[in-house]
Design a protein that fits this description.
single chain, 258 residues, alpha+beta, elongated
Length: 258
Amino acid sequence: MKRYFSLRLIAIHALGAFSFIACVGLAYWQWDRAQAYVPPESATVLSFEELSPLRDYLPASSVGVPTSVTGTWQPDERILMPERVVDGKSMVSPDPESEALVSWAVPVGYWVVDIMELADESSVGVVRGFTETPEQIAPASGDETVSGVMQPSEDVPGLKLVNGIEPLTTNLIVENSRTIAHDGYLVATSPAESLVPVGPIFTEPVVKGLNWQNVAYTFNWLFFAGIVAMMWVRVARDELEFAEIAKSNADLGHDNES
């Protein structure tokens, strides 16, 4: 009976169980990411922590939901997004597969994006407004509470901007943040001096069914979990066989001595 509880076998079972549970957990995480949910009351104001938990992705159900953030501006980390108009929806190509070109009768300028550091030392990108003269906009500084709506990174599948406009992505915000940055960005609805309020691209949660890339990742992790399970069983079985052979050899040696 002792051979079933050797330290080596216990270590094999512990490693096997941990690896299997990790793969299943990652599969569940990818499956959750693959689905877009709509909250029952999309107009309900939610806390930023509910919409964008630290070190997590921005759920589809958080898109377009009103919220507010309180923090300290990082005055040296401004991002200017050129060739944009006030209305974000008008910048979206109706056909993501084509190179759409649009001529606007409205002013073309910049979205001013400033980085805010929150109390938990994370950062979030905030589109404070639109301007044609960004050099005249003073850097944001000090502490402030900003109301707005959450938006996904503009490199999400299915979203393409017209005229080759550079997308505002999470990676771009991360590169300009001093601390870990949240996924997506906030479009401010609070008035900012000398800036025109921006109309967000998404005014309600994203509803697009399954994201098949994440579905594929889900099955990849389940496949890995199956491989881990087979390796776990195989290694444990080999360990038991080796223990049985060692016991048989020991018994044989004892009989020879007798």
